[in-house]
Structures are given as structure tokens and as C-alpha cells.
Amino acid sequence: MGLYVDTVSGNVVIPELGITIVHPATNFALSEQFDPEDLRQALSLTSAITGGTLLWKKTSGGTILTAGDYDPDIVDIDNENLGPGFSGDRTVTFKDLDAAVAVSASPGFTWGNSGNTPANTWLLNDTVPSNKTGRTFPLFNGTLTKLFVSNENVGTFDAELYEHDGTTFTLLATISLTAQRSKSQAYTSVSVTTDKELAIKIVNGSAKNPVVGAILKGTLT
Description:
The two termini are 26 Å apart. The protein folds into two domains: 1-68, no CATH class; 104-219, Jelly Rolls, CATH 2.60.120. The relative contact order is 0.16. The protein is mainly beta. The strands form five sheets. Strands 6, 8, 11, 12, 13, 14, 15 and 17 form an eight-stranded antiparallel sheet that branches. A three-stranded antiparallel sheet has the order 4-1-5. It has helices at 30-33, 36-41, 43-50, 91-100; strands at residues 4-7, 12-14, 19-21, 28-29, 54-57, 108-112, 116-117, 121-122, 124-125, 128-129, 135-136, 140-164, 169-186, 191-192, 197-203, 207-208, 211-219. Strand 9 (124-125) and strand 10 (128-129) form a beta hairpin.
């Protein structure tokens, strides 16, 4: 894997590398002439590619790739492949990991209530009922990973997770306790909407000093 560029409409000067790529140029082999560190530090090269004055490819004569997918570490990605197996193009994979793994299973939200908590009680977001002001979910492509509940006494009740905008409420998931003090439950296909508020309601029973938590994941963009 390398870095090959085509000019679009004129010469492109890369002062950090001490070169001018003279138009028209096709499959100009930057990775064959410069070290990965040189390419990483060439900010004007990055600007030319992301700005569309240079078109970039990973192989000579290969597919022209989108400007937004360019990574200044493109030529250095092979060094990440330290074990056996496929050693080809991993650029998008590592960029996705940076965006997704860093925020997976995060944020973890909790809601609670002090004292006896009858059915149809909304748990608190800090000191505010979560149906009034819930916890805003700030990520994109959100999914619910797990709900977990603790309760002072052994009890039987359900805790429902909703998303809302202060007016419209949508039930996302339910966790049920039957003669239990605590429980956790995993979920695999529950989507959570960016910037909606999350709230918890106790139903079908009562609790004492309950705390409900949600682990969610998503991406930054």
C-alpha cells in the first residue's frame, strides 16, 4: 500500500517536501520518494488532498478515493500489522476504531430515587424527574448495550427505558425483576436517537431506593 496522487487543474506546491507536482501528473508516487513521517508532517499535502486539488490512491493506477477518507498516516498503517494474517489496507479500519472503540460502552448513564418508589414513578436525572429533563444522548449511531438495576430490597417490578423530547415518549427497552435485588440484561438491537433525552420509569410493582443504569455505545461522527 502506498500513496499516489493525480493533479486536478494546476501545479501543486508541497513546501514541507520541497517539491512541486507539475500538472498534469498521474500516479505521482509520493510513498516511493518520502518516508511516512515526512508525509505525515506535510500539512500542505494533507490540505491539497482534503481540499480536492490532489486526487489520491493507495496503488498506482488504482481507484481514486474520497478526500474525507485520507489519513496522513496512510503509508505507516502496515506497521500496525504485527501479527500473522492479512497485511493489506487497514486505514479505514483504524480510523473507525478511533471513532468507535474509544466511545464504545460509553457513556454510562444512571437514574435513581430515594425511598419508597411506587409504580409509574419516573426516576431522577440527578435531582430532576427524567421525564421532565432526561439525560441527552450525545453520540451518533447509538445502540443500547445493557441495562442494570439495583434495589435496596428484594422486589418485583419493571424498569422501562424511554427516549423523549419533552413531549413524545418512545419505549426503548424493559428490564424485569422478579423477587430480585439486582439484575443486568444485555440488548443487541435497540437503537438510540442522537440528542434525544433518556428517562427511566418504574412500573408493574414498587421499589425502594432503586438505581437503574444504561450502558450505550455510538460514534463521534
